[in-house]
Design a protein that fits this description.
49% of the residues lie in helices and 21% in strands. The chain is built from 14 helices and 19 strands. A 6-stranded antiparallel beta sheet has the order 3-2-1-6-5-4, sandwiched between helices. Strands 8-7-12-11-10-9 form a 6-stranded antiparallel beta sheet. A hairpin with a 4-residue loop joins strand 1 and strand 2. Bound molecules: adenosine-5'-diphosphate. Adenosine-5'-diphosphate binds next to helix 13 and helix 14.
């Protein structure tokens, strides 16, 4: 009896234990289910990864006895794990472990193998992979790969510093949560990426709208006419200037351009078109067309009315032609005149010379003096006629120039000899500086002499009695510069350019000097034909310095 009672008691006890175990399991399952429900709620309703994980951890950590979590995301470009979210550690440590190589520590191993790892009794473990979590007092640690469609997106791990190991159900629960988190995280990151792109797109749209507005303002304000045309010549848009220039109303879009204006002539190489407008007037337009591919196959044609400009241009052209013809006629007249003058002049000079030398018919003293005057004036006239001829030949380009090696100091010496009577008559002192050190130059000897004689003649003519003339030489680059300075009346600044013009003379009532006003014109023409330049520096009342350059030989 006693035995059977014992057995019954044992039986009842084991039944009660089994029953309470079942009740315990049911309770635990219910608890886990409610945790899963809470987790699922967080996962579904939160699009921000950090918020999602932090609040999820807050909800489950107490129930499951968890103290830390780490969420690394996989950076496929660098092939590394990057710590994105965490709880239970300080920011300094988080910064230190912000990157993990694949295979490094527990999370690196999980990422590499794409399998979950559960490490327990860590404080007693020597495994190198757990040293990091061991150092922060973790006793049990579980890390799960976050996979989306079989592809690694990161890892999520939980650690407990209270329990040395995890319950089987807790592990299962954490695995389930991680599966859901993977999908949610991918969605959240995808969403945040999408939002960033959306933001950038919005900014771009705003920029586009601003630039469209700017373009529209420019289009409307442009003084040139602008018309946007399709390939077929249909008007899509036209600015106010276009309507005004073409004499049409603003209601032109979608009309064919040929119906609005009549194209009489189109010169594509010159970009000119002659159009007949609606009021019957003919106008000339200058136009430009944008590249076809810029405006999706449409063309932007900009144009301006050049009818008046063309008229002015035509008038100017005609005036220029007339001036050229007149100048040509003048040159021809001067050439003929000079040639025609030379023949009677030669005869006057010849007969005057014969009369002077005639030993048979003796002339009276007075007759001889008169013939001398005829000879002097005749020679001067010959000089003038020759200068005139030189001038017309340089203008018509008929003047021939030699290119020879020249001893400039010798030419200066010879010129001074010719002008000696004139120099002495005015008691002018002439100084030539370093004549022996003057290098050779290239040019036409006779023309260079003519240049020097012209400049020296002026330096004497416009000098004061007992004045001074200096001749200096200087090498400037590949040229020799010859300077002829005098102590004469000088020239005002505004006359410096004009004195080189043909027939230009400055009126000096107190100096009654002969001249044609062509000497300096010839100097300039001759020197420029010989590849040199001419210039003057002068101060009124103090003297002048005329210079010219010639290429070194
Ligand atoms: P012309 O000497 O026959 O008048 P040029 O062409 O040689 O013609 O000179 C033009 C003008 O330049 C002269 O009339 C004179 O007024 C001025 N001129 C030229 N050389 C000098 C000079 N050395 N000093 C002052 N004036 C000068």
């Amino acid at each position: 009896m006693g035995k059977s009672n014992d057995w019954e008691n044992k039986e009842r006890e084991s039944f009660i234990t089994a029953e309470s175990k079942i009740a315990q399991r049911i309770h635990e399952n219910q608890q886990n289910l409610s945790l899963l429900t809470v987790a699922a709620h967080q996962i579904i309703h939160n699009d921000k990864p950090k918020e999602l994980l932090d609040s999820l951890f807050r909800e489950i950590s107490q129930e499951l006895g968890l103290d830390v979590y780490f969420n690394y995301m996989y950076d496929s470009v660098q092939d590394k794990l990057k710590l994105m979210n965490y709880a239970g550690i300080d920011d300094d440590l988080a910064h230190k472990i912000r990157f993990l190589e694949m295979g490094e520590a527990v999370c690196g191993c999980v990422a590499l193998k794409q399998e979950c790892l559960v490490m327990e009794h860590i404080q007693q473990s020597d495994d190198s992979h757990v040293q990091l979590v061991k150092s922060i007092g973790i006793k049990a640690y579980a890390c799960y790969p976050l996979l989306s469609y079989g592809k690694l997106i990161g890892t999520l791990s939980f650690g407990s510093s209270r329990k040395p190991s995890f319950d089987r159900l807790v592990l299962k629960l954490m695995a389930t949560i991680c599966e859901q988190v993977a999908v949610a995280l991918e969605r959240a990151y995808f969403m945040s990426e999408l939002m960033l792109k959306n933001k950038a797109l919005n900014a771009q749209n705003q920029q586009l709208a601003a630039s469209e507005e700017k373009f529209r303002a420019m289009f409307d304000a442009a003084l040139d006419g602008m018309v946007l045309l399709t390939e077929e010549g249909i008007v899509l848009d036209a600015n106010p200037s276009a309507c005004e220039l073409l004499g049409i109303g603003p209601d032109i879009p979608n009309q064919e351009i040929g119906r609005l204006v009549e194209i009489l002539h189109l010169e594509s190489s010159e970009r000119e078109a002659v159009l007949r407008l609606r009021d019957g007037s003919e106008r000339i337009f200058e136009y430009a067309v944008t590249q076809d591919n810029v405006l999706l196959g449409n063309k932007l044609v900009s144009f301006r009315d050049i009818t008046e400009k063309k008229k002015v241009f035509q008038t100017l052209l005609e005036a220029k032609e007339l001036a050229e013809e007149t100048s040509k006629a003048k040159t021809e007249f001067l050439t003929i005149l000079s040639h025609e003058l030379r023949t009677p002049l030669n005869s006057i000079l010849g007969f005057a010379q014969i009369s002077l030398e005639d030993k048979v018919h003796d002339l009276h003293q007075i007759q001889q003096e008169r013939i001398h005057k005829i000879l002097k004036s005749g020679r001067h006239l010959t000089y003038l006629v020759n200068e005139m001829l030189d001038h017309v030949s340089t203008k018509s380009g008929k003047l021939e120039m030699k290119s020879e090696t020249l001893h400039l100091s010798l030419i200066v010496e010879e010129s001074l000899r010719i002008l000696q009577p004139m120099i002495e008559a005015k008691s002018i002192c002439v100084r030539v500086c370093d004549p022996d050190r003057v290098p050779h130059v290239r040019g036409d000897g006779n023309r260079v002499k003519q240049v020097i004689i012209n400049l020296l003649t002026n330096a004497v003519k416009f000098n004061v009695p007992h004045g001074e003339i200096r001749i200096n030489f200087e090498i400037v680059g590949p040229t020799l510069k010859t300077m002829i300075s005098d102590t004469g009346i000088g020239i005002s600044q505004e006359q410096h350019k004009k004195i080189f013009d043909p027939f230009y003379r400055i009126h000096h009532p107190e100096y009654n000097v002969e001249g044609t006003g062509i000497g300096l014109t010839l100097v300039k023409s001759f020197i420029s034909i010989m590849a040199g330049t001419v210039g003057v520096s002068s101060t009124l009342g103090e003297g002048s310095c005329f210079w010219f350059t010639l290429p070194l030989d």
